[in-house]
Specification:
With 433 residues, the chain is an alpha/beta fold. It contains 11 helices and 20 strands. Helix content is 30%, strand content 21%. Bound molecules: guanosine-5'-diphosphate, 6-O-phosphoryl inosine monophosphate and magnesium ion.
Protein backbone atom coordinates (compact mmCIF):
# COMPACT_ATOMS: atom_id res chain seq x y z
CA UNK A 1 0.00 0.00 0.00
CA UNK A 2 1.00 3.61 -0.51
CA UNK A 3 0.20 6.80 1.34
CA UNK A 4 -2.06 9.27 -0.50
CA UNK A 5 -1.54 12.95 0.18
CA UNK A 6 -3.91 15.91 0.26
CA UNK A 7 -2.36 19.35 0.39
CA UNK A 8 -2.90 23.01 -0.48
CA UNK A 9 -1.52 24.47 -3.72
CA UNK A 10 -1.95 28.15 -2.87
CA UNK A 11 -1.45 30.23 0.30
CA UNK A 12 -3.48 27.99 2.61
CA UNK A 13 -7.20 27.87 3.48
CA UNK A 14 -8.05 26.10 0.24
CA UNK A 15 -10.59 23.85 1.98
CA UNK A 16 -8.32 20.96 3.00
CA UNK A 17 -10.30 20.17 6.15
CA UNK A 18 -13.57 19.81 4.26
CA UNK A 19 -12.15 17.40 1.68
CA UNK A 20 -10.16 15.27 4.13
CA UNK A 21 -13.43 14.84 6.01
CA UNK A 22 -15.21 13.87 2.76
CA UNK A 23 -12.50 11.33 1.89
CA UNK A 24 -12.06 9.94 5.41
CA UNK A 25 -14.50 7.06 4.99
CA UNK A 26 -12.12 5.57 2.41
CA UNK A 27 -9.09 5.59 4.67
CA UNK A 28 -8.04 3.70 7.78
CA UNK A 29 -5.68 6.42 8.96
CA UNK A 30 -5.46 10.21 8.51
CA UNK A 31 -2.08 11.72 9.45
CA UNK A 32 -0.99 15.34 9.78
CA UNK A 33 2.68 15.73 8.77
CA UNK A 34 3.64 19.38 9.40
CA UNK A 35 2.53 22.71 10.77
CA UNK A 36 0.77 23.24 14.03
CA UNK A 37 -2.03 25.37 15.45
CA UNK A 38 -1.36 28.03 12.79
CA UNK A 39 -3.67 25.80 10.74
CA UNK A 40 -7.45 26.19 10.89
CA UNK A 41 -9.29 23.43 9.05
CA UNK A 42 -13.05 23.93 8.81
CA UNK A 43 -15.48 21.04 8.57
CA UNK A 44 -19.24 21.45 8.20
CA UNK A 45 -21.95 18.81 8.36
CA UNK A 46 -25.46 18.45 9.84
CA UNK A 47 -25.56 22.24 10.37
CA UNK A 48 -22.55 22.04 12.66
CA UNK A 49 -19.20 23.70 12.08
CA UNK A 50 -15.83 22.70 13.58
CA UNK A 51 -12.41 24.26 13.18
CA UNK A 52 -9.48 21.92 13.81
CA UNK A 53 -5.97 23.22 14.45
CA UNK A 54 -3.80 20.24 15.34
CA UNK A 55 -6.11 17.24 15.22
CA UNK A 56 -6.43 15.56 11.81
CA UNK A 57 -9.71 16.08 9.96
CA UNK A 58 -10.57 12.37 10.06
CA UNK A 59 -11.63 12.65 13.68
CA UNK A 60 -15.36 12.70 12.91
CA UNK A 61 -15.34 9.16 11.57
CA UNK A 62 -15.30 6.53 14.32
CA UNK A 63 -13.61 3.96 12.10
CA UNK A 64 -10.61 6.06 11.18
CA UNK A 65 -7.45 6.43 13.23
CA UNK A 66 -5.82 9.85 13.36
CA UNK A 67 -2.11 10.49 13.77
CA UNK A 68 -0.31 13.70 14.65
CA UNK A 69 3.07 13.02 13.05
CA UNK A 70 6.60 13.90 14.12
CA UNK A 71 6.69 16.87 11.71
CA UNK A 72 3.82 18.59 13.51
CA UNK A 73 4.38 20.96 16.42
CA UNK A 74 1.90 20.89 19.29
CA UNK A 75 0.76 23.55 21.71
CA UNK A 76 -0.68 21.56 24.65
CA UNK A 77 -2.91 24.48 25.66
CA UNK A 78 -4.56 24.86 22.24
CA UNK A 79 -4.66 21.09 21.85
CA UNK A 80 -6.57 20.67 25.09
CA UNK A 81 -9.11 23.31 24.04
CA UNK A 82 -9.58 21.51 20.73
CA UNK A 83 -10.20 18.20 22.48
CA UNK A 84 -12.68 19.79 24.90
CA UNK A 85 -14.77 21.24 22.06
CA UNK A 86 -14.90 17.85 20.36
CA UNK A 87 -15.84 16.20 23.64
CA UNK A 88 -18.70 18.64 24.19
CA UNK A 89 -19.97 17.49 20.81
CA UNK A 90 -19.82 13.84 21.69
CA UNK A 91 -16.51 13.03 20.03
CA UNK A 92 -14.09 11.25 22.29
CA UNK A 93 -10.61 11.30 20.81
CA UNK A 94 -9.14 8.89 23.37
CA UNK A 95 -9.59 5.79 21.24
CA UNK A 96 -8.62 7.02 17.78
CA UNK A 97 -6.03 9.76 18.19
CA UNK A 98 -2.30 8.92 18.23
CA UNK A 99 0.52 11.38 18.86
CA UNK A 100 4.11 11.01 17.75
CA UNK A 101 6.63 10.96 20.58
CA UNK A 102 8.86 13.01 18.26
CA UNK A 103 6.46 15.93 17.70
CA UNK A 104 7.96 19.12 19.09
CA UNK A 105 6.22 21.20 21.73
CA UNK A 106 5.35 24.89 21.51
CA UNK A 107 6.31 26.50 24.85
CA UNK A 108 4.73 29.69 26.22
CA UNK A 109 8.01 31.53 25.58
CA UNK A 110 7.96 30.47 21.90
CA UNK A 111 4.78 32.49 21.63
CA UNK A 112 6.41 35.50 23.29
CA UNK A 113 9.31 35.25 20.85
CA UNK A 114 6.93 35.07 17.87
CA UNK A 115 5.30 38.28 19.11
CA UNK A 116 8.53 40.22 19.73
CA UNK A 117 10.08 39.14 16.41
CA UNK A 118 6.99 40.30 14.54
CA UNK A 119 6.91 43.60 16.42
CA UNK A 120 10.59 44.20 15.67
CA UNK A 121 10.03 43.60 11.95
CA UNK A 122 7.62 46.58 11.83
CA UNK A 123 6.03 46.94 8.41
CA UNK A 124 8.08 43.96 7.17
CA UNK A 125 6.27 41.63 9.55
CA UNK A 126 5.30 38.21 8.21
CA UNK A 127 1.77 38.46 9.58
CA UNK A 128 2.37 35.30 11.61
CA UNK A 129 -0.56 33.68 13.39
CA UNK A 130 1.41 34.35 16.62
CA UNK A 131 1.13 30.70 17.63
CA UNK A 132 4.89 30.35 18.13
CA UNK A 133 5.45 28.41 14.91
CA UNK A 134 8.69 30.07 13.73
CA UNK A 135 10.47 29.97 17.13
CA UNK A 136 9.47 26.34 17.78
CA UNK A 137 10.74 25.07 14.43
CA UNK A 138 13.87 27.21 14.95
CA UNK A 139 14.54 25.35 18.21
CA UNK A 140 13.89 22.05 16.46
CA UNK A 141 16.51 22.60 13.74
CA UNK A 142 18.79 24.32 16.26
CA UNK A 143 18.66 21.07 18.27
CA UNK A 144 17.20 22.78 21.30
CA UNK A 145 13.61 21.57 21.06
CA UNK A 146 11.45 19.69 23.54
CA UNK A 147 9.54 16.74 22.13
CA UNK A 148 6.41 14.96 23.32
CA UNK A 149 8.52 12.03 24.54
CA UNK A 150 10.60 14.40 26.68
CA UNK A 151 7.54 15.35 28.70
CA UNK A 152 7.64 11.91 30.32
CA UNK A 153 11.27 12.04 31.35
CA UNK A 154 12.66 13.25 34.69
CA UNK A 155 14.76 16.01 33.10
CA UNK A 156 11.76 17.65 31.40
CA UNK A 157 11.30 20.38 34.00
CA UNK A 158 15.00 21.29 33.78
CA UNK A 159 14.87 21.38 30.01
CA UNK A 160 11.80 23.60 30.21
CA UNK A 161 13.46 26.06 32.61
CA UNK A 162 16.62 26.19 30.49
CA UNK A 163 14.61 26.89 27.35
CA UNK A 164 12.53 29.54 29.11
CA UNK A 165 15.67 31.30 30.35
CA UNK A 166 17.22 31.23 26.90
CA UNK A 167 14.03 32.49 25.25
CA UNK A 168 13.55 35.33 27.72
CA UNK A 169 17.15 36.48 27.26
CA UNK A 170 16.48 36.66 23.56
CA UNK A 171 13.08 38.30 23.99
CA UNK A 172 14.66 41.14 26.01
CA UNK A 173 17.02 41.83 23.10
CA UNK A 174 13.96 42.64 21.00
CA UNK A 175 11.59 44.13 23.53
CA UNK A 176 11.87 46.08 26.80
CA UNK A 177 9.08 44.22 28.49
CA UNK A 178 8.27 40.92 26.75
CA UNK A 179 6.57 39.48 29.81
CA UNK A 180 3.86 42.11 29.49
CA UNK A 181 2.69 40.47 26.25
CA UNK A 182 -0.58 38.65 26.73
CA UNK A 183 -0.98 35.10 25.46
CA UNK A 184 -4.53 33.96 24.72
CA UNK A 185 -5.59 37.14 26.54
CA UNK A 186 -3.79 36.09 29.73
CA UNK A 187 -0.79 37.32 31.70
CA UNK A 188 2.31 35.20 31.18
CA UNK A 189 2.26 33.54 34.61
CA UNK A 190 -1.44 32.64 34.38
CA UNK A 191 -1.01 31.29 30.88
CA UNK A 192 2.08 29.31 31.85
CA UNK A 193 0.19 27.66 34.69
CA UNK A 194 -2.69 26.68 32.40
CA UNK A 195 -0.17 25.47 29.83
CA UNK A 196 1.37 23.14 32.43
CA UNK A 197 -2.07 21.92 33.52
CA UNK A 198 -2.91 21.07 29.93
CA UNK A 199 0.05 18.68 29.63
CA UNK A 200 -2.04 16.09 31.43
CA UNK A 201 -4.53 15.93 28.54
CA UNK A 202 -1.76 15.50 26.00
CA UNK A 203 -0.10 12.78 28.04
CA UNK A 204 -3.40 10.91 28.49
CA UNK A 205 -3.48 10.18 24.75
CA UNK A 206 -1.80 7.34 22.88
CA UNK A 207 1.83 8.33 22.37
CA UNK A 208 3.55 6.26 19.69
CA UNK A 209 6.63 6.12 17.53
CA UNK A 210 4.45 7.12 14.63
CA UNK A 211 6.98 6.17 11.94
CA UNK A 212 6.63 2.52 13.04
CA UNK A 213 2.90 2.84 13.61
CA UNK A 214 2.33 4.14 10.07
CA UNK A 215 4.75 1.84 8.28
CA UNK A 216 3.29 -1.18 10.09
CA UNK A 217 -0.20 -0.04 9.11
CA UNK A 218 0.94 0.13 5.47
CA UNK A 219 2.40 -3.38 5.67
CA UNK A 220 -0.94 -4.62 7.01
CA UNK A 221 -2.66 -3.19 3.92
CA UNK A 222 -4.20 -0.19 5.69
CA UNK A 223 -5.03 2.92 3.66
CA UNK A 224 -3.41 6.14 4.84
CA UNK A 225 -4.10 9.75 3.81
CA UNK A 226 -1.59 12.45 4.77
CA UNK A 227 -3.26 15.81 5.49
CA UNK A 228 -1.28 18.93 4.69
CA UNK A 229 -1.53 22.25 6.46
CA UNK A 230 -0.89 25.73 5.03
CA UNK A 231 -0.14 25.67 1.29
CA UNK A 232 2.68 25.30 -1.23
CA UNK A 233 3.22 29.05 -1.57
CA UNK A 234 3.88 29.15 2.21
CA UNK A 235 6.51 26.36 2.02
CA UNK A 236 9.75 27.28 3.81
CA UNK A 237 11.89 26.40 0.75
CA UNK A 238 9.67 27.09 -2.24
CA UNK A 239 7.08 29.59 -0.98
CA UNK A 240 7.20 33.39 -1.23
CA UNK A 241 10.15 33.59 1.20
CA UNK A 242 10.47 35.16 3.73
CA UNK A 243 6.67 35.50 3.84
CA UNK A 244 6.16 31.81 4.51
CA UNK A 245 5.62 29.43 7.38
CA UNK A 246 8.49 27.43 8.92
CA UNK A 247 7.81 23.93 7.59
CA UNK A 248 7.82 22.01 4.32
CA UNK A 249 4.20 22.07 3.26
CA UNK A 250 4.82 20.12 0.04
CA UNK A 251 4.67 16.36 -0.65
CA UNK A 252 8.34 16.02 0.37
CA UNK A 253 7.22 17.03 3.87
CA UNK A 254 5.24 13.78 4.12
CA UNK A 255 8.46 11.77 4.05
CA UNK A 256 10.22 13.77 6.75
CA UNK A 257 7.07 14.58 8.72
CA UNK A 258 5.78 11.02 8.98
CA UNK A 259 8.75 8.76 8.18
CA UNK A 260 7.23 7.55 4.92
CA UNK A 261 9.78 6.70 2.20
CA UNK A 262 9.27 8.67 -1.06
CA UNK A 263 8.58 5.47 -3.02
CA UNK A 264 5.61 4.85 -0.74
CA UNK A 265 3.78 8.01 -1.77
CA UNK A 266 0.69 7.24 -3.88
CA UNK A 267 -1.82 9.73 -5.23
CA UNK A 268 -1.34 13.41 -4.52
CA UNK A 269 -4.56 15.43 -4.27
CA UNK A 270 -3.75 19.09 -4.87
CA UNK A 271 -6.44 21.40 -3.63
CA UNK A 272 -6.99 24.97 -4.83
CA UNK A 273 -9.66 27.64 -4.79
CA UNK A 274 -11.22 28.79 -8.09
CA UNK A 275 -9.67 32.15 -7.16
CA UNK A 276 -6.86 33.02 -4.72
CA UNK A 277 -6.59 34.22 -1.14
CA UNK A 278 -3.78 35.01 1.24
CA UNK A 279 -3.81 36.00 4.89
CA UNK A 280 -0.86 37.86 6.39
CA UNK A 281 1.81 39.81 4.53
CA UNK A 282 3.77 39.01 1.40
CA UNK A 283 3.55 39.05 -2.37
CA UNK A 284 0.29 38.16 -4.10
CA UNK A 285 0.51 38.93 -7.84
CA UNK A 286 -3.22 38.66 -8.66
CA UNK A 287 -4.49 40.50 -5.57
CA UNK A 288 -7.52 42.73 -6.14
CA UNK A 289 -7.83 45.97 -4.20
CA UNK A 290 -11.15 46.98 -5.73
CA UNK A 291 -14.79 46.05 -5.25
CA UNK A 292 -14.24 42.74 -7.07
CA UNK A 293 -11.80 41.72 -4.32
CA UNK A 294 -14.32 42.81 -1.71
CA UNK A 295 -17.05 40.81 -3.46
CA UNK A 296 -14.87 37.68 -3.36
CA UNK A 297 -14.15 38.27 0.35
CA UNK A 298 -17.80 38.78 1.26
CA UNK A 299 -19.24 36.02 -0.92
CA UNK A 300 -16.52 33.55 0.08
CA UNK A 301 -16.59 34.56 3.78
CA UNK A 302 -12.87 35.03 3.48
CA UNK A 303 -11.92 35.63 7.09
CA UNK A 304 -9.22 33.53 8.79
CA UNK A 305 -10.38 30.35 10.56
CA UNK A 306 -7.57 30.71 13.13
CA UNK A 307 -7.19 34.46 13.57
CA UNK A 308 -10.40 35.95 12.10
CA UNK A 309 -8.32 38.31 9.96
CA UNK A 310 -9.81 39.33 6.57
CA UNK A 311 -8.17 37.33 3.80
CA UNK A 312 -6.72 39.17 0.82
CA UNK A 313 -8.48 38.05 -2.39
CA UNK A 314 -7.58 37.90 -6.08
CA UNK A 315 -7.95 35.89 -9.28
CA UNK A 316 -6.56 32.42 -9.88
CA UNK A 317 -2.81 32.47 -10.54
CA UNK A 318 -1.92 29.78 -13.07
CA UNK A 319 1.86 30.32 -12.87
CA UNK A 320 1.78 29.69 -9.12
CA UNK A 321 -0.63 26.77 -9.57
CA UNK A 322 1.57 25.06 -12.15
CA UNK A 323 4.61 25.62 -9.93
CA UNK A 324 2.77 23.97 -7.03
CA UNK A 325 1.69 21.03 -9.22
CA UNK A 326 5.31 20.52 -10.27
CA UNK A 327 6.70 20.65 -6.73
CA UNK A 328 4.11 18.27 -5.31
CA UNK A 329 3.70 15.75 -8.14
CA UNK A 330 -0.05 16.35 -8.11
CA UNK A 331 -2.03 13.48 -9.68
CA UNK A 332 -5.51 14.94 -9.10
CA UNK A 333 -6.68 18.52 -8.75
CA UNK A 334 -9.54 19.48 -6.48
CA UNK A 335 -11.23 22.78 -7.28
CA UNK A 336 -12.85 24.53 -4.33
CA UNK A 337 -15.36 27.30 -3.75
CA UNK A 338 -16.59 27.55 -7.34
CA UNK A 339 -19.95 28.71 -5.93
CA UNK A 340 -18.29 31.95 -4.82
CA UNK A 341 -18.02 32.85 -8.52
CA UNK A 342 -21.73 32.22 -9.26
CA UNK A 343 -22.49 35.90 -9.70
CA UNK A 344 -19.60 37.07 -11.88
CA UNK A 345 -20.12 38.03 -15.55
CA UNK A 346 -16.46 37.40 -16.24
CA UNK A 347 -13.79 35.41 -14.49
CA UNK A 348 -10.17 36.39 -14.90
CA UNK A 349 -7.31 33.91 -14.73
CA UNK A 350 -3.67 34.98 -14.70
CA UNK A 351 -1.99 32.68 -17.21
CA UNK A 352 1.49 34.18 -16.91
CA UNK A 353 3.47 37.03 -15.39
CA UNK A 354 5.07 40.05 -17.00
CA UNK A 355 8.33 40.96 -15.26
CA UNK A 356 10.54 43.78 -16.59
CA UNK A 357 8.48 43.80 -19.78
CA UNK A 358 9.06 40.08 -20.41
CA UNK A 359 6.37 37.43 -20.21
CA UNK A 360 7.12 34.34 -18.18
CA UNK A 361 5.32 31.40 -16.64
CA UNK A 362 8.03 30.94 -14.02
CA UNK A 363 7.63 32.04 -10.40
CA UNK A 364 10.63 34.35 -9.83
CA UNK A 365 13.32 33.86 -7.17
CA UNK A 366 12.14 36.75 -5.05
CA UNK A 367 8.44 37.30 -5.51
CA UNK A 368 8.52 39.89 -2.75
CA UNK A 369 10.95 42.25 -4.47
CA UNK A 370 10.13 42.15 -8.16
CA UNK A 371 7.21 43.83 -9.79
CA UNK A 372 4.96 41.13 -11.20
CA UNK A 373 2.21 42.09 -13.60
CA UNK A 374 -0.27 39.27 -14.14
CA UNK A 375 -1.38 38.59 -17.72
CA UNK A 376 -5.06 37.66 -17.64
CA UNK A 377 -7.32 35.60 -19.83
CA UNK A 378 -11.04 36.10 -19.45
CA UNK A 379 -13.63 33.35 -19.12
CA UNK A 380 -17.39 33.67 -19.13
CA UNK A 381 -19.22 33.36 -15.80
CA UNK A 382 -22.20 31.01 -15.36
CA UNK A 383 -24.44 33.39 -13.43
CA UNK A 384 -26.63 30.75 -11.81
CA UNK A 385 -26.72 29.06 -8.44
CA UNK A 386 -25.11 25.62 -8.15
CA UNK A 387 -27.48 24.62 -5.35
CA UNK A 388 -28.64 21.05 -5.74
CA UNK A 389 -26.19 20.13 -8.50
CA UNK A 390 -24.67 16.79 -7.61
CA UNK A 391 -22.96 15.64 -10.78
CA UNK A 392 -20.37 17.12 -13.10
CA UNK A 393 -22.66 16.63 -16.12
CA UNK A 394 -25.31 18.88 -14.60
CA UNK A 395 -22.92 21.76 -14.03
CA UNK A 396 -23.39 24.86 -16.23
CA UNK A 397 -21.34 24.81 -19.46
CA UNK A 398 -19.32 27.89 -18.46
CA UNK A 399 -18.16 26.16 -15.28
CA UNK A 400 -17.32 23.02 -17.24
CA UNK A 401 -15.30 25.25 -19.57
CA UNK A 402 -13.43 26.75 -16.58
CA UNK A 403 -12.59 23.24 -15.36
CA UNK A 404 -11.48 22.16 -18.84
CA UNK A 405 -9.37 25.31 -19.17
CA UNK A 406 -7.50 24.41 -15.97
CA UNK A 407 -7.04 20.79 -17.05
CA UNK A 408 -5.63 21.87 -20.41
CA UNK A 409 -3.28 24.47 -18.95
CA UNK A 410 -1.96 22.18 -16.22
CA UNK A 411 -2.15 18.77 -17.86
CA UNK A 412 -3.71 17.39 -14.66
CA UNK A 413 -7.31 16.20 -14.30
CA UNK A 414 -9.71 17.97 -11.95
CA UNK A 415 -11.21 15.09 -9.96
CA UNK A 416 -13.41 17.02 -7.54
CA UNK A 417 -15.34 20.27 -7.62
CA UNK A 418 -16.62 21.79 -4.38
CA UNK A 419 -19.77 23.92 -4.49
CA UNK A 420 -20.27 24.82 -0.81
CA UNK A 421 -18.84 24.35 2.68
CA UNK A 422 -20.97 21.34 3.61
CA UNK A 423 -19.77 17.76 3.20
CA UNK A 424 -22.61 17.15 0.74
CA UNK A 425 -21.77 20.07 -1.52
CA UNK A 426 -19.10 18.08 -3.29
CA UNK A 427 -19.06 16.86 -6.89
CA UNK A 428 -16.77 13.93 -7.54
CA UNK A 429 -15.82 13.88 -11.20
CA UNK A 430 -13.18 11.17 -11.34
CA UNK A 431 -12.68 8.05 -9.29
CA UNK A 432 -10.99 9.14 -6.07
CA UNK A 433 -12.95 7.02 -3.63
P1 LIG B 1 -8.31 24.80 5.15
O1 LIG B 1 -7.42 25.50 6.08
O2 LIG B 1 -7.66 24.48 3.84
O3 LIG B 1 -8.96 23.59 5.73
O4 LIG B 1 -9.50 25.82 4.80
P2 LIG B 1 -10.26 26.79 5.84
O5 LIG B 1 -11.18 25.98 6.65
O6 LIG B 1 -9.31 27.67 6.55
O7 LIG B 1 -11.02 27.73 4.85
C1 LIG B 1 -11.92 27.27 3.90
C2 LIG B 1 -13.28 27.94 4.14
O8 LIG B 1 -14.11 27.76 3.02
C3 LIG B 1 -14.04 27.33 5.30
O9 LIG B 1 -14.82 28.32 5.89
C4 LIG B 1 -14.91 26.28 4.62
O10 LIG B 1 -16.08 25.99 5.37
C5 LIG B 1 -15.25 26.98 3.36
N1 LIG B 1 -15.46 26.11 2.17
C6 LIG B 1 -14.84 24.96 1.85
N2 LIG B 1 -15.23 24.54 0.64
C7 LIG B 1 -16.12 25.46 0.20
C8 LIG B 1 -16.86 25.61 -1.02
O11 LIG B 1 -16.77 24.82 -1.94
N3 LIG B 1 -17.66 26.71 -1.11
C9 LIG B 1 -17.78 27.64 -0.11
N4 LIG B 1 -18.58 28.68 -0.31
N5 LIG B 1 -17.09 27.52 1.03
C10 LIG B 1 -16.26 26.46 1.17
P1 LIG C 1 -4.25 26.33 6.97
O1 LIG C 1 -3.71 24.95 7.29
C1 LIG C 1 -3.40 30.42 5.74
C2 LIG C 1 0.31 32.20 7.19
C3 LIG C 1 0.21 33.34 8.20
C4 LIG C 1 1.47 34.10 7.86
C5 LIG C 1 2.47 33.02 7.50
C6 LIG C 1 3.39 32.63 8.67
O2 LIG C 1 -5.48 26.69 7.68
O3 LIG C 1 -4.33 26.48 5.48
P2 LIG C 1 3.05 31.30 10.94
O4 LIG C 1 2.07 31.47 12.06
O5 LIG C 1 2.98 29.95 10.28
O6 LIG C 1 4.44 31.65 11.34
O7 LIG C 1 2.61 32.37 9.84
O8 LIG C 1 1.69 31.89 7.12
N1 LIG C 1 -0.38 30.96 7.59
C7 LIG C 1 -1.53 30.54 7.03
N2 LIG C 1 -2.32 31.12 6.10
N3 LIG C 1 -3.71 29.19 6.23
C8 LIG C 1 -2.92 28.59 7.13
O9 LIG C 1 -3.12 27.32 7.53
C9 LIG C 1 -1.79 29.29 7.62
N4 LIG C 1 -0.82 29.00 8.52
C10 LIG C 1 0.03 30.03 8.48
O10 LIG C 1 -0.94 34.08 8.00
O11 LIG C 1 1.26 34.88 6.71
MG1 LIG D 1 -7.36 27.29 7.21
Amino acid sequence: MKVDVLLGLQWGDEGKGKIVDVLTKNYDVIARFQGGPNAGHTIEFDNKKFVLHTIPSGIFNDNTLNVVGNGVIIDPYIFKKEIEILKENGIDVKSNLYISTKSHIILPTHRLLDAVYEKAKGDKKIGSTLKGIGPTYTDKVGRNGIRVGDLLLPYFKNKYEEAKKRHLKLAYVYDDNPLSIKIEGKNFDDYEKEWFDSLETLLSLKLVNSEYFLNNALSEGKKILAEGAQGTMLDIDFGSYPYVTSSNTITAGVSSGLGIAPAKIGRVFGIFKAYCTRVGSGPFPTELFDETGEKLRQTGHEFGATTGRPRRCGWLDMAALKYAIMLNGVTDLMMMKVDVLNDFDEINVAVKYKIDGKETEEVPFDMANVKIEPVFEKLKGWKISLEGITSFDKMPDELKDYVKFIEEKTGVRVSLVSTGPDRNQTIIKENIL
